[in-house]
Amino acid sequence: MAAALINVQKTVRKGEIIEIKTLMAHPMETGFRTGLGGQLIPRDIIHRFVCTFEGVEIFAADLFPAISANPFIAFTFMPQQSGTLTFRWFDDKGGAQVETARIEMV
Amino acid sequence: MRLDAMMFTRRDALTGILLACALRPAAATPAMMEAAIADFTKNRPVTEGRVKLDLPPLVENGNAVPLTVSVDSPMTAQDFISRIALFNEKNPQPNIALFYLTPHAGRAQVSTRIRLGDSQFITAIAETNTGALFSAKAELIVTLPACAEN
Questions:
Q1: How many CB pairs below 8 A link A and B?
Q2: Domain span including residue A94
Q3: Distance spanning both ends of chain B, measured CA to CA
Q4: Contacts of A79 in chain B (CB under 8 A)
Q5: Does the model's ipTM exceed the 0.85 cut?
């Protein structure tokens, strides 16, 4: 895991529902494909994604091999105050990546 | 003569694909999807409706099929959608994803991109905070399945 793309608008008005779009670079190896020697390539997918706002979980997902490579997840959020969104991805190799984004209430 | 040669290569290629598929675990069956759904619903009744599953009816590339699922819900602390599960019939595994939502979402809507190994039905089941279940089904045709790429 290396590059994450997060698309969140920086400022929101009270009561506004925003869409948060995330894209994480990851091969999402299914574990069903065979390599050159005919052996199965071991599964390596992002199996869990969590988004928190000021420490409170607002969205989470369990992912399976049926999710495309470079998983794209978009969901909605209605912030009540300014704060920091924290995004976490966990993969089968024990890798984790954390990204943050700031939202200002205007 | 030329046509014959072409047919032969095509047959060769087909044999190769069949061999490759034989080495792989068998695809999930609608029965496996039923089992996965039963595991999620715990045999509670599922009502059709309230859920909208947005998928293109015909896709060229099964490796990345855009999907949006939305549920008609006020998303207040008293009445909200807590989980949305997606299932398929014919991929090697029946599960696609399980989303956990909270009233902070404001709207029950999630988008992602999925892989599909064949033309099939996709099922979405949403669970409210009180445990009621709602579902939607969508059929789509895949011209180049995800499984054929390797």
A1: 104
A2: 4-105
A3: 30
A4: 104
A5: yes
